[in-house]
Amino acid sequence: MRLRLAGSSPAKFRTLPVPGEPRKVAGAPDGKIEVRMEWLRLARAMAKKTRKSSVSARSTVRREGVPPMRIGTNVPDLLAAWFRGSARVLPWRQTRDGYRALVSELMLQQTQVSRVVEKFEPFIARFPTPAALAAASEDEVLTAWQGLGYYRRARLLHAAAKAVVARHGGEVPSAAEALRALPGVGRYTSGAVSSIVFGAREPIVDGNVTRVFQRLEARAGSASDGDVQAWAWERAEAFVAAAREPSVANEALMELGATVCTPAAPRCGECPLRATCAAHAKELTAEIPAPKKRVARKDLVLVTACVRRTDGAVLLEQRPTGGRSGGALSGLWAGLWQPPAVESADGADLAPRAAGELLGLPASVALAAVGEVPFMTTHRAVRFVVFAAKVRGAGKALAVRGRVWVKPDDLANYALSNAAKKVLARGVDRPVCP
Ligand code: SF4
């Protein structure tokens, strides 16, 4: 086996003999071997000898007949050592228990750490145990979840707490299999909780972990590709099998992806794995992983009315929670409160009276158009066409079909989506007089 070391022109390359035989990876399927990273260091040393810069050597080392690179067994230890000195101080790391870990993991799915940091302790203070969470109403849980988005996770966490009480006497189980049987807990979350809290030798793969593995081995493709995902789980299994302390190594791996090996501009200079990273050696960090394929968002126009009374109360309705109607609005903001809204493709052209009729408001409610509010979700580009009105008296005729008047002081007890908050800000702040 030989390494090929090229110069600045492709014609000028040297081949170097590789000393020794590649090592068999412990536990790897037959035929899979590990490329020893000393070879890359050797190639760089040879580049110096032949008066090439180390940078040029890094970028031009080619592998000839070398099987795919595998993660070295020292990677978990390197990461664990780095983590001990670099881990961020995060609230769910202060006290390790299964419930806190479960809550934090569900919150961290699709929500930024900084936002979760704000919301985590208040949520735990409100629902300190699985039993407390299980005993709460869905409205209370959704209200406490406000600001974290993707409310489906809140409902799943609520259901998981009920299952923990019913099946495990109120204690979050430690085994990954039992965790995985809880609502909303998949392979990643069960692995994270059982490994990080209970020290189980369980693999974990999320977007950050996949990116780190891909770069370590210069594995092309998008992190969301099915074959890349399957490959990453294999790597995670090998990684955790080689770890002295699975809990620290797994958490360190995620931390590296979140803080150093970031999607754009990874900070390789600060990375404990740079000497073993193929993407860094080949200057491929900008290309690996490939960008995610974008899914076209569905356009959606919603006509909505911010109606308020003279005492400041606003009219709200709750979005349906159950079932999937199959329409463009299906499942969107399920169970959350909003100013009355209805889908209408030609909503932007509606006159105020026509909008009132569409929304089922009495003719006495004098709506006025107050503009539009755009809002992007993962799958939809929503345009709210906002109308507003102020009504005198108790407005009893409007509190029908599940609609309620909510006073400003009471608004905090109603779970509103961020979209509904923006709509309210647009509608309520406008001085509209009948
Ligand atoms: S060296 Fe750079 S690309 Fe490689 S794992 Fe570290 S931060 Fe990521």
Describe the model.
It is elongated and about 75 Å long. The chain has a 4-stranded mixed beta sheet. It starts with a strand and ends in a 5-residue tail after the last helix. Mean pLDDT is 82; it is low at 1-43 and 50-69. It is an alpha+beta fold. The protein has helices at residues 38-49, 54-60, 75-86, 91-94, 98-108, 113-126, 130-135, 138-145, 152-168, 176-180, 187-196, 207-216, 226-242, 246-259, 278-281, 352-358, 418-429; strands spanning 2-6, 13-17, 23-24, 33-34, 61-64, 298-309, 314-318, 337-338, 341-343, 368-376, 380-391, 404-406. It has 3 domains: 2-64, no CATH class; 75-281, Endonuclease III, domain 1 (Orthogonal Bundle); 298-429, Nucleoside Triphosphate Pyrophosphohydrolase (Alpha-Beta Complex). Helix 5 (98-108) crosses helix 6. Helix content is 39%, strand content 15%. It binds iron/sulfur cluster. Iron/sulfur cluster binds at residues 212, 215-216, 260-261, 266, 268, 271, 273-274, 277, 279-280, 285. The site of iron/sulfur cluster (SF4) has 14 residues, from helix 12 and helix 15.
